Amino acid sequence: MFAGTHTAIVTPFRNDSIDAESLKKLIDAQFDAGVSGVVPCGTTGESPTLDYDEHELVIKLTVEYAAGRGIVMAGTGSNSTREAVELTQEAEAVGATAALLVAPYYNKPTQEGLYQHFKAIASETSLPIMLYSIPGRCGIEIGLETLERLVADCPNIRAIKEAGGNPERVSQMKLALPDSFEILSGDDSLTLPFMSVGAVGVVSVASNLIPGPLAEMVKLALAGDFVGAAAIHHRYYPLFAAFLKLSTNPIPIKTALGLTGQIVPELRLPLSAMEAEKTAELRATMERLGLV
After folding, report:
1. Of 60, 65, 115, 161, which is the active-site residue?
2. Strands 13-14 and 17-18
3. Which one, of 112, 148, 110, lies nearest residue 131 by Cα?
4. Contact 15/196 with Cβ under 8 angstroms?
5. Interatomic CA distance for residues 108 and 104, integer angstroms
6. What is the chain's Cα-based Rg?
7. Known active-site residue 132
């Protein structure tokens, strides 16, 4: 179901309000370029600073603008199980086709707590669920044994976005889990390494800017053409590296989209604009790639 490229779409703001017009243009550009789906209200969408009504609005607009052209995988995770259930049910009600559920952050539950958290959410929705393990932000990893239990007990838990930075985890999951369970990279620079050992795609930040090349790279890798896929990876690796190096996501990608005139690169505090010298470095990288 999830094989392909899914863009973790930014949330454009204008004067601290949702910029619906820019969001529509971004989503149109994604599907025109061949991505498999879009992910509203993830980390890249600044979900921590969207209020409840805005969160619902962004998902509803994304469903409307996607118009059935691909998957809309709504970011509905929370460190509150009750809130995650409510957000997931709201996403289902407005027409999302899947949900992305990040591991609870800050409160650092045990693995048993993680199991109970995700099981409780899965039992309250019919949406296919992709779990999201990103220990660098959450302070906790979804353990392999926990994942095995969840996949066995929750039929709608179908995939994981793996953002722990370790290709070995992909191999471990492939050995332990059913072939039907799908693994996607959560890091653009690791998409190809992950796919070489069994992942089936990426939830991408960079595809906000370069949806066509990312979609083509993943398509080639899925077809077994790793030489062709590697050529795209190597061409755009400087961009992937710049996004990681220069600042916290989504600051660099919003800056890049601002440089191309696709959005106003407005962020919400506590995120702040990228420094002038780092913006110049990003522009130089984009110029070398013919992106600006």
Report:
1. 161
2. antiparallel
3. 148
4. no
5. 7
6. 18
7. yes
pLDDT tens, 127-163? 999 999 887 778 888 899 999 999 999 999 999 999 8
Locate the domains of the chain by residue range.
4-225
DSSP annotation of 132 = E
The candidate with the shortest Cα–Cα distance to 243, out of 212, 208, 216, is 208
Of 132, 219, 236, 254, catalytic: 132
Are the C-beta atoms of 230 and 192 separated by less than 8 Å?
yes
Look at the domain 4-225 and name its fold: TIM Barrel (3.20.20)
48: its two tokens: 């921590």
**Secondary-structure breakdown of the chain: helix, strand, coil percentages, each rounded to the nearest 5:** 50, 15, 35
Express each pLDDT in 164-184 by its tens digit.
888 889 999 999 999 999 999
d(CA 116, CA 41): 23
**Sign of torsion over alpha carbons 14, 16, 20, 26:** positive
Residue 79: other Cβ atoms inside 10 A: 16
40 band by pLDDT with thresholds 50, 70 and 90:
very high
Rounded Cα distance, 46 and 67, in Å: 23
Q: How far is CA 217 from CA 50, 158, 222, 231, 245, in A?
A: 32, 23, 9, 8, 22
- CA pair distance 248, 11, nearest whole angstrom: 15
Active site residue 161: yes
